[in-house]
Amino acid sequence: MDSAILGELELEFAPNQNFENVVRLGKEELLRFYKESDCSMLPCGKAEKVKHRALDPNTRLLSLDVGGSVLKMAIVSPTVFDVVFSRTKPLSAGTVDESFFANIAEWSCVQARKYAEENCIPEKDLSFLVGVTFSFPLTPNNELITMSKGFDIATELKGVNLLQLLRRQFSNIQMDCAFSVRGIINDSVAVYLTNSAYGAGDDFTLIVGTGTNACLSLNSADESILINAELGFLGKDFIRFSKFDLFDSTAGPNLPLERVTAGKCVPQVLKRVLDYYKVPVSSHCEFNGKLLSNILEEKDCHYFGTRYALVKEITKILLRRASFYLSAALMSIAHLTGKANLSKVRVGFVGSFLANITFYQEMTQKFAGGKIQLHYLRASHLKGAAIHTYNSL
Asked: Where is the Hexokinase N-terminal domain (predicted)?
């Protein structure tokens, strides 16, 4: 019976075009986005190197990463951009309004106070330069374009400059130290800046966490322009969906690649498959990216009892499909940026979903014939936000 189920699912999740066609269609779609879209392939300024300068000894670089499931804060050194202090806080999906950002500012200031206390520095002697990364697309005026991953935009925030809003929220906090919010950038751009600052030599950068995105540079008028790809929008022309895929607000109506590759979506597809085939699952089982990692590492067998072996094989089927489309998307970028003829295409990446599943990484590299070389850039969201702040001085 289990072999019959797996046979059905292999057919259900099989792509309906070969790899080369998907790469070609992906490149064409990216080019069209670059010319026409206001929510994908978004120019984000010049690709600049780090401008080294001295900071006041009492000034600190404070980075915030507003992700799809976690808020991260860090103090980053201004010389080698190492994280010297960090804290995290879970984020619950829902409506994003002014209070969402007020809570971020308040929590960040509390963590800054803890940093001062742990390092025996009087608050009044410190000033913080704040840089923010955001995992959702913004206009050049820092207005929210759209949201996914279970979040939606409150009416009061439509047309609002988020940088100005954050500055106002931080100014409302009563503390002896000073906070100056210097900028807000997409998290994929932050990862690219970190890659560039460390001289990692990656050809472009990738995020596969709760969502999926990439950052690349394109030459325009003898300048290198950073592009926030908003890669989750890719795939309308070539992704074949199954009857188990998500078509609701969990992923958004127009994020094809994200629906089949991201940590917010793939675990929910697994849940739908198990429900459909009436596979018993413990009520304590939480379907998220960590679960898929644990299934492959045989850490959560008890949730599925005697059907664990079946669940593990289903998980592999879902991740093979994710790898196929993710690998093709990366090769589409490689062709677009003129990197496809290189013997190896180096891709710096972050995101816990991809980072924690070795099988996902291996299959992504395998589908491209070994040409893609994934390179993990730890804490690069936070470091990139600090680099952006540092360069703005």
From this structure: 60-195
